[in-house]
């Protein structure tokens, strides 16, 4: 019997499953603890009457198990103990034990895992919306329904129907988070973000949680400590209520998988607000802080108090004592660029819909490519750089999430008033991209699948899974996906998705661009 089994992310060992230790650095004990936690969450969902405290346990428990979030066996066990107490209080059993999560008929394991992993992704989004004070009864109810459904027997058709229903609920959840972010921080507007780090003390913030960033900006104001975003935090620069802070200076580094190199020798602390945390090297572990559900053995953790407030003074003091760089240091993107653009959120694009529609009608814009999703460490992801470089000059690249770091520092010129690469934000801003596509389809009086629009997605972890299910539930076809297909898709499930939705595994940029051009 293997020490563990996990196949939830794209870098899973041998493309089939991590069985000794995680490629991500997750140890077998932590993996086993996460399986126990999931089994407890399924048991709680089966017994719960839907009360919000149960939903919160399910949301945060699922978020704990997302890739690169929590490596700390003690913290995972603590979470499982709280869920167990709630399950026992509700009179629940364990209908699907930890050892049975990934056992059984290949297709059923595949379909069950796809729903579980989608729910993990949605949990991250629901968590971020909740800390900003928003929740939705349909989303809350579906966490209970979906988790309970994992323990029941369903036919393949019933599983597919559950997955499509989940995709629609996840769309609601993505919309909820957009509403929470926009209500709190305003509609993003386009902004050029420098990749230069100025002299003096600074803190790097990574992950997705804008609320944590806002608290840190407030607590560092006037203290002589600059703040730099990292990875998925880059789109924060577009939000008026965040960019108003003069000490929110720029963006440091590229996507998550380069952190062990980038943070080595960094004269500043780093705050991880969500995934993607990699095991830190000894050379910088004393400067890494986690918060919320993120945890790693031995790292300092900043917890919220009873009112949700967090005291970031340990980071601020360390930033001041480290002192930062003596001189400004210019960093570069993957392609040598020294700045990047962001802030082309849904509203910024819809405000210019007339110009865009005219450009399409005049033939100045021939095609839109949404090239988005996660970045990762495995070879083959330069596909996305090459794909973008090879797109014709009369096309627009919409992008979101951290996969954009493969090409967001490229200068591909402009079409009318717009740069050809438009960064719509974080992965959750897929909601805005869907709304833009629906608006364009309305303007051209056609369906989304009839638009000159192709989605070219890169996936890595479970948030990409829930977004893919949402896109499929909307009936969006001809999506290109890579760098490889999920290990948890059985052959049958892959064939069904290819047949139903014309899902395309990526090949080469030239081949895929030619196929797209040929229609
Ligand atoms: Fe392996 Fe990915 Fe699971 Fe980590 S999260 S153990 S790399 S499949």
Condensed summary:
This protein is of the alpha/beta class and 519 residues long. 42% of the residues lie in helices and 13% in strands.
| Distinct small molecules bound, one entry per kind | iron/sulfur cluster
Overall pLDDT score: 96
Helical element count? Answer: 17
Biggest sheet character: 6 strands, parallel
Residues in helix, %:
40-55%
Percent strand equals: 5-15%
- Across the major sheet, the strand order is 5-4-3-6-7-8
- Radius of gyration over all CA atoms, rounded: 22 Å
What does this structure look like?
42% of the residues lie in helices and 13% in strands. It has helices at 28-47, 52-64, 73-89, 106-131, 137-149, 156-185, 210-220, 240-243, 259-262, 313-322, 346-350, 353-361, 382-390, 430-443, 462-473, 491-501, 509-518; strands at residues 191-194, 196-197, 202-206, 226-230, 248-251, 270-272, 288-291, 300-302, 329-330, 339-342, 367-373, 395-399, 414-415, 418-419, 421-423, 453-458, 480-482, 504-505. The model has no long low-confidence stretch (mean pLDDT 96). The longest helix has 30 residues, at 156-185. It is built from 17 helices and 18 strands. The chain is globular and about 60 Å long. It is α/β, with parallel strands linked by helices and 519 residues long. Strands 5-4-3-6-7-8 form a six-stranded parallel sheet. The termini are far apart. The structure holds iron/sulfur cluster (SF4). The site of iron/sulfur cluster (SF4) has 13 residues, from loops.
């Amino acid at each position: 019997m293997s020490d563990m089994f996990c196949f939830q992310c794209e870098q899973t060992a041998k493309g089939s499953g991590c069985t000794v230790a995680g490629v991500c650095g997750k140890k077998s004990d932590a993996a086993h603890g996460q399986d126990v936690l999931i089994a407890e969450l399924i048991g709680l969902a089966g017994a719960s009457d839907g009360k919000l405290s149960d939903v919160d346990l399910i949301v945060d428990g699922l978020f704990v198990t997302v890739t690169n979030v929590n490596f700390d066996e003690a913290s995972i066990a603590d979470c499982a103990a709280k869920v167990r107490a709630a399950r026992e209080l509700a009179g629940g059993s364990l209908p699907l034990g930890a050892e049975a999560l990934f056992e059984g008929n290949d297709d059923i394991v595949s379909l069950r895992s796809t729903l579980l992993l989608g729910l993990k992704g949605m949990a991250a989004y629901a968590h971020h919306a909740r800390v900003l004070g928003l929740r939705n009864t349909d989303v809350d109810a579906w966490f209970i329904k979906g988790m309970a459904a994992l323990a029941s027997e369903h036919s393949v058709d019933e599983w597919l129907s559950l997955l499509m229903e989940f995709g629609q609920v996840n769309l609601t959840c993505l919309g909820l988070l957009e509403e929470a972010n926009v209500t709190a921080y305003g509609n993003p507007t386009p902004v050029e973000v420098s990749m230069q780090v100025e002299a003096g003390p600074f803190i790097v913030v990574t992950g997705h949680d804008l609320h944590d960033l806002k608290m840190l900006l407030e607590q560092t104001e006037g203290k002589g400590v600059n703040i730099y975003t990292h990875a998925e935090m880059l789109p924060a620069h577009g939000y008026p209520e965040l960019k108003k802070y003069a000490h929110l200076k720029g963006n440091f580094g590229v996507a998550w998988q380069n952190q062990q190199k980038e943070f080595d020798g960094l004269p500043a602390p780093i705050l991880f607000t969500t995934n993607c945390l990699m095991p830190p090297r000894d050379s910088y572990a004393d400067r890494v802080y986690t918060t919320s559900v993120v945890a790693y053995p031995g790292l300092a953790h900043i917890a919220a108090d009873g009112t949700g407030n967090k005291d970031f003074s340990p980071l601020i003091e360390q930033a001041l004592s480290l002192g930062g760089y003596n001189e400004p240091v210019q960093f570069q993107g993957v392609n040598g660029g020294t700045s990047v653009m962001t802030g082309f959120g849904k509203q910024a694009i819809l405000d210019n819909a007339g110009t865009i529609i005219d450009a399409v009608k005049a033939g100045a814009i021939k095609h839109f490519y949404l090239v988005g999703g996660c970045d990762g460490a495995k070879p083959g992801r330069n596909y996305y750089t090459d794909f973008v470089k090879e797109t014709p000059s009369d096309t627009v690249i919409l992008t979101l999430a951290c996969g954009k770091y493969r090409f967001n520092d490229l200068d591909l010129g402009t079409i009318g008033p717009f740069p050809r690469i438009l960064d719509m934000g974080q992965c959750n801003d897929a909601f805005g991209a869907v709304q833009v596509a629906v608006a364009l389809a309305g303007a051209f009086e056609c369906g989304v699948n009839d638009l000159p629009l192709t989605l070219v997605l890169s996936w890595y972890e479970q948030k990409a899974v829930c977004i893919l299910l949402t896109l499929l539930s909307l009936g969006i076809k001809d999506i290109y996906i890579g760098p490889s297909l999920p290990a948890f898709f059985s052959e049958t499930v892959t064939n069904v998705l290819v047949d139903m939705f014309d899902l395309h595994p990526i090949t080469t940029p030239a081949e895929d661009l030619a196929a797209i051009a040929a229609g």
